[in-house]
Write a structure and sequence with these properties.
Elements lengths: L6 H4 L9 H4 L9 H21 L6 H7 L2 H15 L6 H24 L6 H12 L19 H17 L15 H21 L1 H35 L3 H20 L15 E3 L5 E3 L9 H7 L2 H12 L6
Helix pairs in contact: 3-5, 3-9, 3-11, 5-6, 6-11, 8-12, 8-13, 9-10, 10-11
Length: 324
């Protein structure tokens, strides 16, 4: 598989540097090859969809789309994944693979008819049309705005997300102006875990491999598998047409695929569960969490109900940061 995305510049996490041992070429045994390929392909596909949701700060992502490399890399990963699937995830996974192929074809068509003439400002304007300049409550790409009817619930979920990142030695890159619960950040975390899974197969032994796989399953079951399907449906309606509508369709089928692949059963939020958190002040006034809500800033959320202590507890229970 080609590398495609230049991960260093646009990475939302600070990834630990590869050691000399990691950089050495490794001979993959025939027995391990299918599992390594599946992990690498899932890692690539998570990264592609993750990158799609970030605000386009520069031309890099648009160039990647217009050059055809986005579709080329995605199709190559999908084809390799399908080849090595070996009935993992059953018929549901196979069906979603076919749907994902169609979405790449739709992206390719969009690029050839409209996207090839776009400049960076066009992509930025389209991102703002869909997601706005503040937190758009009709399709917010933030997990803590789903299923939490109080700001304290947001704080707990934010602490749990931070605990996952911390356990694997990751922190948010200062180049990315987003919160820990942004969709792109969470999807890139799954990209990292899937890549780490491929490395663990070759280097770390069964115990560490199982730790990584369990982290993938738990993060999908307790986080992205719960809110992303609802978000994707909301985004389809909000975007209505264009690149982000296609990306929403892709995201929906990709989440359904990986849920089947991992064999987990999240309890997804429904439309009736979506209630942006509100806070009742002593005077009885209510405000919604959004860009105007200063209490929604990460620093306050993390300290509101002891999230920092939660992270420390998670780290203590999983071992030293980065050793998972």
């Amino acid at each position: 598989m080609g590398t495609g995305v230049k991960e260093g510049k646009r990475s939302t996490h600070k990834m630990p540097s590869a050691s000399t041992e990691e950089k050495r070429e490794v001979k993959i045994s025939p027995k391990d090859a299918p599992a390594v390929e599946r992990a690498l392909c899932r890692s690539k596909l998570y990264l592609l969809v993750s990158w799609g949701y970030l605000f386009p700060e520069d031309d890099e992502f648009l160039d990647y789309l217009q050059s055809g490399e986005f579709v080329e890399d995605g199709k190559a990963a999908l084809e390799s994944l399908e080849k090595e699937l070996q009935n993992i995830g059953g018929q549901e996974a196979k069906n979603r693979i076919n749907a994902l192929k169609t979405h790449f074809e739709t992206i390719e068509e969009w690029v050839s008819t409209e996207g090839e003439n776009w400049g960076i400002q066009d992509l930025r304007d389209e991102h703002r049309r869909v997601f706005s300049n503040v937190i758009a409550l009709d399709c917010p790409p933030y997990e803590t705005l789903f299923g939490n009817d109080h700001v304290f619930g947001q704080s707990y979920v934010m602490g749990d997300i931070a605990g996952f990142y911390s356990a694997f030695g990751l922190q948010l890159s200062p180049d990315i102006h987003e919160r820990l619960d942004h969709l792109s950040v969470e999807l890139e975390f799954m990209h990292y875990l899937a890549y780490k899974e491929s490395y663990a197969i070759l280097h770390d032994g069964q115990e560490k491999l199982q730790t990584v796989i369990e982290a993938e399953k738990k993060f999908v079951k307790e986080h992205i598998g719960r809110w992303v399907p609802l978000f994707a449906g909301m985004l389809v309606r909000k975007a209505d047409f264009g690149f982000y509508k296609i990306l929403a369709d892709f995201t929906s089928d990709w989440m359904a695929f990986d849920i089947a692949y991992l064999g987990v059963t999240p309890q997804p939020y429904s439309e009736t569960d979506y209630r942006p958190a509100s806070f009742m002040s002593p005077e009885g006034q209510t405000f919604e969490c959004g860009a105007q809500d200063k209490g929604n800033e990460l620093s306050l959320l993390m300290s509101e109900v002891g999230a920092d202590a939660f992270i420390e507890k998670e780290t203590d229970s999983t071992g030293k940061s980065g050793n998972a």
